[in-house]
Amino acid sequence: MSKINEFLNELDDYELAFFAKFKLSTYMKVTQSKIKEYLVERNLNESKIERLIAENPKSKLEDKLKRCPRCYSDKIRKNKVEWTNTDGGIGLEDEIAIADGIGGEATYKNEVVCDVCEFWLEDPNEEKPVSFPKRIMKGIWKNIIGI
After folding, report:
1. 100 and 89 in contact (C-beta within 8 Å)?
2. Residue 56 to residue 105: CA distance in whole angstroms
């Protein structure tokens, strides 16, 4: 069994619906075809996917698990990454990271991503795509700091 099939077998129908909508297109065409075949085997078509996303009962759960704000899955991945985006930051943590960088040491932070729908919960290096309003606010903030 392939690694992707093992992963897909771990998903319930609601998670699989979010996976199909948000993450399927990130795979290569050959893998996408295999995933689409798997979706057919699980009896998930486009309309059922949309219905499952709309009625997701996990959105009403009140447990203590860390969940994705988009799909409410608890399948969260943490990657320890070198923190490189310390530019323009204010605070002790930023100052320490800058000093460590000058000294040749790296500072590491967790990048937290949903395994199901690829939603970024934490992005220390701001690598995920940023919406237009957020880009405007960041530009204004950088201008204020730069004054």
Report:
1. no
2. 44
> Is the Cβ–Cβ distance between 142 and 88 less than 8 Å?
yes
pLDDT value of residue 86: 56
Rounded to a whole number, what is the distance in angstroms from the first to the last CA of the chain? 58
- SS (HEC) of the chain: CCHHHHHHHCCCHHHHHHHHHHCHHHCCHHHHHHHHHHHHHCCCCHHHHHHHHHCCHHHHCCCCCCCCCCCCCCCEEEEEEECCCCCCCCCHHHHHHHHHHHCCCCCEEEEEEECCCCCEEECCCCCCCCCHHHHHHHHHHHHHHHC
pLDDT at 124: 73
The two tokens of residue 12 are 């319930």
Residue 129 identity = P
